[in-house]
Each structure stands twice: as C-alpha cells, then as structure tokens.
Amino acid sequence: KAQLDAFAFAIALVTPFVILSQLNLRSYIATDFKCKFNLYDYQYSLFITTGIAMLLILIVCYLSNLTTESIYITMLVAGYKAIESLSSIYYGIYQKNNDMRTVAISVIVHGVTAVLSMVIMIYAFDSVLYGVLTILISWVLILCVYDHKYISLDSRVGNILTALNFRHIAS
Fold first, then answer.
1. What digits encode the pLDDT tens for the residues 9-52?
2. Which residues contact 64 (CB under 8 A, 6 or more apart)?
3. Most buried pick, 29, 43, 119, 148, via CB within 10 A?
4. DSSP per residue over 113-155, as a string?
C-alpha cells in the first residue's frame, strides 16, 4: 500500500512539472509552416526544460521528507514522463505530415506496455518500484525502436517528408 501511495504522489507531483516543461512543442511543430528550426533545436529546448523540471522535482522530494523508495518511484515516474515528452516532439512531426497512424500506434503501445509492466511487476515481485522501472525501460525502447525510426535528426522539420518512410503512409 505504501508503494501505491508513493506512485499516486509521484504522478500528482510530476505531471504539472512535465506539462510545463513540454512548452507545448508538439502543437508548435505541427503548426509551424515557416520551418525555421531543425529537430535538434526542439530536442535541445526540451532537454533544458526537462532537466530543470527534474531538478525541481528532486528538490520538492527532498523538502517533502519522502522515503528513499518514494523518491526512487517519483524520479522514475519523472523519467518515463520525460521520455513521453520526447516522443511528443516526434508526434508533432508526424501530425504535421498527416501521419496520425504512427502516432496512434505509438500511444497504444505506450499504454499497453505501461499497464502490462505494472501488473506483471506487482504480481511477480509485489513491487511498484519495479513496475515503474519497467515502464521507463519499455518506453525508452519504444522511443528508440519505433517513435523516431522514420525521422533523421538533422532534417528540417518542414522537410521531414523526405526523411519519412512512406510505405506505411501509402497503405
């Protein structure tokens, strides 16, 4: 029960910081038709704001006198929310290019892996901490294997169509 309380606290604490750190970049990317920035610029901005958010979350954890396990859970939740933020940059690019199928598949896989990770780890090890760690690892893998596989880092966001693999869009 204490771990579930820590998990609920972690979600409640982390979510506002992460939402603010995202800077609504997905919407900006999806609607930016001047294409002034490349993907690296967006990622750099997100890394800076997410780093600040992570530091603030750690400070709040310290000031809240949480247990060590609660701090671990909170920081792991912050980690997988940071990965989710990075995925949202890719979602903005796909949205701009009318490839909502890729976004939908990614979001579904994220949701399914989160639920399965938590259920399996609680059932097998009676540990929310392991569940959150498994979510983080699986979301990093989804980001690396699926979310950015159609996009090259150095391409202009407006010219991303040339970097996309169209075999799944045409169908």
1. 999 999 999 999 999 999 999 888 888 888 888 999 999 999 99
2. none
3. 29
4. HHHHHHHHHHHHH--HHHHHHHHHHHHHHHIIIIITTT--TTS
Distance CA(60)–CA(168), nearest Å, equals 44
Q: How much is the pTM? A: 0.86
Name the nearest CA neighbour of 26 among 78, 81, 95, 103: 95
Token output for 116? 């399965």
Query: Hey, what are 32's tokens?
Result: 């930016």
Report which of 104, 55, 101, 61 is spatially closest to residue 82, judged by C-alpha positions.
Answer: 55
3-class state of residue 162 by DSSP: helix
Q: Which of 78, 89, 81 is nearest to 110 (CA)?
A: 81
